[in-house]
Amino acid sequence: MNNPEFNNSIIFIADNTILNPTRTKEYQNLSVNYSVYLNTLLFSNWVEIISTLKSQFGISYFLDKNDEEYLPKYLIPQNSNSIFYNRLNLAKFSQHFGKYTSGNTSKILLLFYNSLGLTQDDIIRVFDLIQSDEPSIVIGKSVRDQIVFICTSGNDLNLIDQLFQAERKYNKYLKSISNKDIFIHTLENFLAINDFEDIKKLYIELSKKESLSYCSQKIHESFNDLFIEYKELLNG
Fold first, then answer.
1. Exposure check for the chain: N or C terminus, fewer CB within 10 A?
2. Mean pLDDT to the nearest integer, 91-97
3. Where are the domains of the chain?
4. What CA–CA distance (Å, rounded) separates 206 from 38?
């Protein structure tokens, strides 16, 4: 459980099986081993970013229980708060996982592994957008309208429940919370990697110099190993 000294929490989650080769969904055109490799790189990139914020936030890493035996020791920092969950419980997040936040007055960022584009400074700014004097939520969505993160007050965890019930679909989620008196900030144009078209976008995005602000040189080089294997398809 997070240290109570933290007022705010980051919950980083892989909302499906990503490491177990017998259960991981293969990306189109990628072998299962390279699919797991891509998932590992996406996960590692976020771990690298958010682990530098551990002095400011309580951080919990959530993985599907089917991945527990396949988790490399290097993937999550030692002494981190790692939770292996049952996917059936995600739609009732507030009941099963609320204990991993830092209390009712805290702010919570729920961040999904299959995304890219937030820097450390961006994460801090997202928390700053949540006002204490009015109900508010910050939603980050991909170029294809998949929600890649939400940030909200810890006293309204049912907003996270509804996110899973809406399958992370932006318009469906907005409809599900339309009856709430809440101020909504939407931040756009993040990457979410779900299929080969998204991998092509990732390939282009990581060719830009500015991507080094949210993906280190070391992770870039690892992505390049993947891109080289599929270079013909990526350039097709």
1. C
2. 84
3. 8-194
4. 14
Check residue 14 and report its DSSP letter: -
CA of 171: how far to CAs of 11, 84, 179, 188, 204, in Å?
Answer: 23, 29, 14, 13, 27
CA dist 116 and 114 (Å) reads 7
The CATH number of the structural domain formed by 8-194 is 3.90.550.10
Q: Which residues contact 182 (CB under 8 A, 6 or more apart)?
A: 135, 136, 137, 159
pLDDT in tens, 31-72: 999 999 999 999 999 999 999 999 999 999 999 999 999 999
| b/e code 184-220 from CB counts within 10 Å (16+ = b) | eeebeebbbbeeeebbebbbeebeeeebeebbeeebb
CB atoms within 10 A of CB 224: 13
Residue 164 parent element (H or E): helix 158-165
CA distance 213 to 205: 12
The identity of residue 117, as a single letter, is: G
Arithmetic mean of pLDDT, 18-31: 97
